[in-house]
Design brief:
Elements: H1 2-7, E1 13-14, H2 17-31, E2 36-39, H3 46-54, E3 59-62, H4 66-80, E4 84-88, H5 92-95, H6 98-107, E5 111-117, E6 143-147, H7 156-172, E7 177-182, E8 194-195, E9 215-218, E10 230-232, E11 239-240, E12 246-250, H8 256-269, E13 272-275, H9 291-294, H10 298-304, E14 309-313, H11 320-328, E15 332-337, E16 351-354, H12 357-362, E17 364-365, H13 372-394, H14 400-410, E18 414-417, H15 421-429, E19 435-438, H16 448-459, E20 463-468, H17 469-474, E21 489-495, H18 512-517, H19 525-530, E22 534-536, H20 541-552, E23 560-565, H21 570-584
Parallel strand pairs: 2-3, 2-4, 4-5, 5-7, 6-7, 9-10, 9-16, 11-17, 12-13, 12-14, 14-15, 15-16, 18-19, 18-20, 20-21, 21-23, 22-23
Antiparallel strand pairs: 1-8
Length: 587
């Protein structure tokens, strides 16, 4: 323990969690080159005040009038061409900054407002000095974040990646940003300190160097000022991967050309590829299909964990096990996407490249040789998975697994995947070359039929929708939209009589049906009659295959609904059997 403290650039010992979070906050700002901190007196903001006051690289400026303090910060920022921090306590102290915040937005001045706030239980109950501070400055800040009350149940990484994202957004659009931080007592140091070494272990080395947690890189800098939160790199600059065991993870990619550029990059460099069903690359021969299931095998998991660099392209990965592996990995993690928002649900990305994937891969080089032995070992597991899952994918007894796999693997047109069980099964078992669409931004079950119709209308080509019964019920009214379509439209309805997904989750057995699954006992032939939809309910997998192929080539362009009725427990039982076989598989 003493050795860790000796080599640490950030102490693990603090008087309480409030002071720890405040020190993390100030330290990360300083690592971005920020030095000026304007402070108004206040009790609840004490953790921030003390952290700023004691840091050896800060310059503090104090004023009792928050309105004047805001404008003091404006002047400091304009003169230095750098962001300046303003720290105030809760209540009207925050409101007094409004004129300066407005001026900062209108004049493109990078102020950083950190306001202390009451915790939620003290809001709207006549607690002293408690007002509604959430987004108090409306849309004038170019970035806002409500920071929850400090607690060890939230990773310290969250705090750092939030700061890094806010500063990046400010770098792209000059103006004020606002962090509203809810503190509960105690605010002041006690006699003894607490060693937070275990809690800070997730920082993965941040506390042993002097760089920000996440470094942003982007090809263009609209702000055109002294960039602190990101690095501008020209298209001619090479990016050194500097790694021997590289895992490429591809999330949701809408542009097929971008996806193919990633595939070529992996093939040419012999990189391990994990492609999500939304990536447009799931059918690539280079992809490790079914990695979600393979991660149940401890040997495979340990082998993958040997990677020294994870390149993640885009976001919204379906696989929970892959997300967990990335979160726990000791490897360097880079995220590549043209989108500016934070795509880091695990709060572990070290380098963030805001660039199109095709541009990124053309700029990469590798000063190390790829470990082909490791690559071949990882790929060898594909055969084992195929051997184990083949009986479930080809069994003539109808199931959600074999129908999902067949539907996706046989189609090269457009497929819309609903959420819950549908997209998870597709991610586990399909190897599709179809163009995949999904609503995974919020992953809700609402509006999925309407979304699929919109996609079909725009593309003017045969389209299929894979959807569960609860999601189907939720958007039943949108079936009226199907009359507007001019091409074959196929709905494959996985009817397991309620929320079958909850069989895979640790919900209390006694409440599962009544409060989670909500079985309805319905089939949907009468619904199809009402909306003039062709209806099929196959009894076997062979019948399903015939119905699906016929529906895709129908001459009258009428919508077909194929209802796959299965036991609510069937998929959970099959998945458990597959997992147990994989867990004991020796390769």
């Amino acid at each position: 323990m003493a050795q860790v403290e000796k080599h640490s650039t950030f102490t693990h010992k603090h008087h309480n969690i409030n002071l720890l979070w405040a020190n993390l906050f100030i330290e990360e700002l300083v690592r971005h080159g920020i030095s000026d901190f304007c402070i108004a007196p206040g009790s609840r903001s004490t953790p921030l005040t003390l952290a700023a006051a004691k840091h050896p690289k800060t310059k503090t400026h104090v004023h009792f009038d928050e309105r004047g303090l805001g404008f003091l910060a404006l002047g400091l920022s304009q003169a230095s061409a750098k962001p300046v921090v303003v720290i105030v306590t809760s209540g009207t102290a925050v409101a007094n900054l409004y004129p300066a915040v407005i001026e900062a937005k209108q004049s493109h001045v990078p102020l950083i407002i950190i306001s202390a706030d009451r915790p939620p239980e003290l809001i709207d109950c006549t607690a002293n000095q408690a007002i509604e501070q959430h987004k108090i400055f409306a849309d004038y800040p170019v970035f806002f974040c409500q920071i929850p009350s400090p607690t060890t149940s939230i990773k310290s990484n969250f705090l750092l990646t939030t700061i890094d994202q806010g500063l990046f957004q400010q770098d792209m659009t000059l103006g004020p940003i606002h962090f509203n931080m809810a503190f509960t007592e105690p605010f002041y140091p006690q006699n003894e300190t607490i060693d937070f070494n275990t809690y800070l272990s997730s920082l993965k080395g941040w506390d042993t160097h002097q760089f920000p947690f996440t470094v942003y890189h982007h090809a263009n800098c609209p702000a055109q000022h002294n960039s602190l939160s990101s690095n501008v790199f020209p298209e001619s600059q090479k990016i050194d991967l500097n790694a021997q065991k590289i895992l490429v993870v591809v999330g949701r990619i809408k542009d097929k050309k971008q996806a193919l550029a990633i595939e070529r990059f992996c093939i040419q460099s012999n990189l391990v590829l994990f492609s999500d069903v939304q990536s447009q690359l799931q059918g690539s021969p280079h992809n490790i299909n079914g990695y979600d299931l393979l991660l149940e095998n401890e040997n495979f998991k340990q082998l993958v964990q040997q990677t020294d660099l994870i390149l993640q392209f885009s976001d919204h990965l379906v696989s929970k096990r892959l997300n967990q592996l990335i979160s726990s990995s000791t490897a360097t993690i880079w995220e590549i996407s043209e989108h500016k928002q934070r795509l880091d649900s695990n709060h572990c990305v070290g380098q963030r490249f805001v660039i199109h994937p095709s541009n990124f891969v053309t700029q990469t080089t590798n000063s190390k040789s790829i470990d082909n032995t490791w690559f071949n070992k990882v790929n060898s597991y594909k055969t084992t998975l195929t051997t184990i899952t083949n009986e479930y994918v080809t069994d003539n007894k109808i199931s959600e697994i074999n129908c999902t796999a067949y539907m996706l693997n046989q189609s090269t047109d457009n497929i819309v995947l609903a959420n819950s069980m549908a997209i998870r099964l597709a991610d586990m078992f399909a190897q599709t070359e179809a163009h995949i669409y999904s609503n995974r931004g919020a992953s809700g079950i609402d509006g999925l039929i309407a979304t699929a119709v919109g996609i079909a209308k725009n593309n003017g080509a045969p389209t299929s929708l894979l959807i569960g019964d609860t999601s189907f019920l939720y958007d039943l009214n949108s079936l009226i939209l199907l009359k507007q379509l001019q091409h074959p439209f196929v709905i494959v309805l996985l009817n397991n009589d309620g929320g079958g997904i909850f069989n895979l989750l640790p919900v209390p057995e006694s409440e599962k049906q009544a409060f989670y699954q909500l079985p309805h006992g319905l089939t949907f032939k009468n619904t199809c009659d009402q909306f003039s939809i062709r209806y099929q309910q196959p009894a076997t997998f062979s019948e399903f295959k015939t119905h699906y192929q016929d529906a895709l080539i129908t001459k009258d362009n009428k919508t077909t609904l194929i209802e796959v009725c299965v036991s609510n427990q069937l998929t959970a039982i099959q998945l458990q059997a597959i997992k147990e076989q994989l867990q004991h598989a020796i390769i």
